[in-house]
Amino acid sequence: QVQLVESGGGLVQPGGSLRLSCAASGSILRANVMGWYRQAPGKQRELVATMSRGGDTNYADSVKGRFTISRDNAKNTLYLEMNSLKPEDTAVYYCHADFFGLGYWGQGTQVTVSS
Fold first, then answer.
1. How many CA atoms lie within 13 A of 52 on its CB side?
2. What share of the chain is helix, strand, coil (3-state, %, to 5)?
3. Would strands 67-72 and 77-82 be described as parallel, antiparallel, or unpaired?
C-alpha cells in the first residue's frame, strides 16, 4: 500500500551536485530501513545508502564521503544529496523502504553525469 515517488534527477556536469527526493505516502518512521539504490545500463541494481528508523546511516564505498542520505519526518521524505558527481554515478536511482521484510520500490529517477 506504500507508494514512493522519486524526483530530482537530471543532467549534471562532473563535479556537480544533485539532490534526490523520495516522497512516501505513509510515515517513513514506520520503515525498518529506507535506502537508495541505483542501476546503470547493463549492470545490476546496487545499494547506495541506507538509513534505519533510528537514524543510523550506511554508504557504499564508492559514494562514501560524497553522498549523504537524510530524511524529513514531517514531510515523509527521504533525500540523497550527491556531491562531487562522477560519470560512473550515472544510473537510475531508486528509493526503497523495508517494513521488516516487506519492501516497496519507487519508480526511479534518471541521473546523468556528463560534460
1. 5
2. 10, 55, 40
3. antiparallel
Residue carrying C-alpha cell 544510473 = 91
100 falls in which pLDDT band (50, 70, 90)?
confident
* Cα–Cα distance measured from residue 44 to residue 92, given in angstroms and rounded to the nearest whole number: 11
Angle at 37 between CA 56 and CA 85, to 5 degrees: 90
* Pairing relationship of beta strands 77-82 and 18-24 according to DSSP bridges: antiparallel
* pLDDT tens-digit map of 59-82: 999 999 999 999 999 999 999 999
Beta strands in 67-108 (DSSP E): 67-72, 77-82, 91-99, 102-105
